[in-house]
Each structure stands twice: as structure tokens, then as C-alpha cells.
Amino acid sequence: MIKPRNSRLLTAITLVSALALTATACGDDGSGTAGAQGAEGSGTGKIVFWDENGGVRTAIWKEIIADFEKANPDIDVEYVGIASTEAQAKYNTAIQGGGLPDVGGVGAAMLAGITAQEALDPLDDRIAGSSLKGMLNEAMTENVRNAAGRDELYTVPISATNGVLYYRTDQFEKAGLDEPDTWDEFYAAAEKLTDKPKNQFGYTIRGGPGSIAQALDAMYGQSGIESFWDASGKKTTVNDPKNVAALEKYAGLYRKVTPEADLNNDFTKMVAQFDAGGIAMLNHNLGSYQDHVNALGTDKFRGIPQPKLADGRRVMVSNPVSGLGLMKSSGNKAAAWKFIEFAASHASNSKFGESAGLIPANKEAAEDPWLDKAETTKLGAEALFSGDTKIVQLPYYLPDWNTLSKADSEAGFQKVLLGKGTAKEFLDTLAAALDEAQAEWLDQRG
């Protein structure tokens, strides 16, 4: 159920106040708190780097740090790995109580909250005066600028994932089907490749955690609507009649060409079923690419960008872009910026992208030979870099976005799948909450 705006705001204020009181009670001196101006420093000495996806990316970041320290022997980087599920809370606590790093990994979904607490330095001028000028992917840059909810850029984009349609090439070949390049071909293939008595399904639809982002991608991809807000910037297009029709058609796949268990499935179960051969097509992102390779090799599946419209256009919703932020409270911003610039450089960003299987933000890195061996990543990079794909920027800048697009909406989407609610009712409810959150955000901006 979507909460009233005042309830959400009160909860946020209460949480921040509690954190602040806790920090005071503990006797923290306030160093490294949000709003502190810090200093440029000498450009040498020690800096602290927080990796917001610790464990998963620890090895590659330590390799990049070693390369940096070799090139900059007068700078020492202390690596701190943080589990992605704990990153937001750790930042919030440090912002109120002190102890922020010099450089922090900040995903787009966290960016608005951290920026609103004045914890990050704007980076446009630094980028303009550095080797990164003109070298960062425009779509990723737009993504993180939009996510901050301000005109300035507050993180240097490092990598991105995007929506991928994985399909079992072995099953398509056996059925005499071509690659599902368009939405019409996708729907036709899903039906033809379904054989319920044999427990074989043409598609798996995400009905459990994370379902809304995938549903939005399918909606906008089919409707062709290219903006999340109308021309006024005050009303969302999420419940536009074209999106309503698209969601009706997409939700209609459930139980017709998908397993009934999809109602509660998350991506881990969906990936396992796809790799086991019970599913012919799966929507996920680049994050599961290596899982498929490990299970199937490279000759039984393919991952392609989301299908096109009949007129040849491809529309996709934005995926959160990972980036590096310079903390305003840092006492050694010169050294911290050197590290950010190094990490986003051609060589380092290419090394990171290859290790993580993600699309690198550096334009030169996105042209490196390793992408030819990681076809799905290469196709995703081409979709983002070519300019032929229209990216609908989701409003990560809204403080309520995470709850509205997850906990507050997932149960409603399940009702649509079960036929207990209509796509229009669901999207009208979501739209009303989004319009209210947007109005509040616009009021706060003045």
C-alpha cells in the first residue's frame, strides 16, 4: 500500500534526527560530516575509498588501487568494502555522525539522498579541466546527473548495466525461430516455445522482488513513450493509455506462457530455470551474464538488447549507473580527485568493465577488444553509445522512488498478474503517488 506523503516525510525526518542524536550522544567531533567543506590538501598522503559493492568487486578495485599507487607513490589508498545492501545505511550514518571517506562509490539509486544531505562536491569543473573531458558516455552522464536531481554532476560514471533479453539459441533453432528482434517476434516466440504438459515455457515473468523495474522496461519499450514525465514535468506518463495497453499485454503472459511460480520468483530462481532449460526467454541485466556462461557456455544462449518497436525504434528505461563521488568533507580533495580520474581512465575503466562484465563509461574503454569476447556486454554498449536507443530516465532523484517502485507497488503488480486488479487501476495508483512525490520535490527546489 502506498503511504501518504506526510507519513513518508515524517519517517525520513525522524530517522535523520535519530541518527544525529546518536552521533551527539557518542561524543563524535563531527569530522567528515555532510556540509563540511574539507580542503584541497597537498595532493599526497592517505585517502579512504568506500566500495559500495564490496566482496563482489573487491578484487578488481584492489588491482586498480595497486596500479594507482604504483603511478602515484606519494598517495596511499585505504580500501573499505561495503556490502551493497548496507551501503545506503552506512553513508547515512557517516553523514550525520562523521567518518565519511574521501572517495565513495555511489550508485544512481542512492545519489539523490546523499546529494540532498550536501555530502558530495559537484564535479563539472574538475571533469572539464581533466583528461576525462569528452571521454565519458553521454547517456551514463545524463543518468547520474538526472539521478542527483540537480543541474550539477555529482559522480563520475564508471559502469552501467542495461536490460537484456536472454534467449536459448538451442531452443529457437530447434523450433525454426529467428532471433526475437521485435516485440511482435518476442510474443510469437513465447507462445510457440511453450509446452505446458512438458513443463516447458517460452518466458519467465518477474513477479517477485524487483518486478516493477522490469515491468516498466517492457511498458515503455512497447509503448514507445520516450519520457517519464509529460511536457510540464509535473505529470508522469506511467499511466498513459499506451503504457496501460502495454502492461495489459505483458501481464497477460503470466500462466499462459510462464510458470505459475513466477508470481513470487526473483531473478535468482528465474536464472536457474533458464539455465536448466525450462525457460526459453528471460529478461534480466548484464549481472547474470557470467552465470549463463558458466552454466551453458556460449553456444546455447544469447543476450540481446530489449526488442524494438515495429518502426525500428528501441526504447528502454534507465538502469542505475555506478559512479565515484568526491566527498565534500575530504581534507585531501586533490589526491582524491587524482584517484577518481585514474579509475575512470581508459585503462582502468576497461579493466573494471572486463572483470565485472559491465559496460564501461569511458568511451575508449568501450571500444576495447575484450568486448568482442563478451558479446552481450558489447551489444549493450553499442545500444548505449550509438545514440539509436532512447533511454527513459527513471526518477531516481525522488526520495520516495525506491519505496514507490518496490515495496509499495510489487503487491499491486501481483494483483494484475492474478487478474485481481487491472493494469489501469495499478498504474493510476502508482501515477498519483509519483505525481505527488514530484510536486513535493519541485516545491523543495523552489
UniProtKB/TrEMBL annotation:
Database matches in InterPro entries: Bact_solute-bd_prot1, SBP
Membrane recorded as keyword: yes
PROSITE patterns assigned to the protein according to its UniProt record, in alphabetical order: PROKAR_LIPOPROTEIN
SUPFAM superfamilies tied to this protein: Periplasmic binding protein-like II
Alphabetical keyword list: Cell membrane, Lipoprotein, Membrane, Palmitate, Signal
Domain of life: Bacteria
Signal peptide region: 1-25
Pfam families: SBP_bac_1 (PF01547)
Lipoprotein found in the keyword field: yes
Name of this chain's protein: Sugar ABC transporter substrate-binding protein
Biological source species: Streptomyces zhihengii
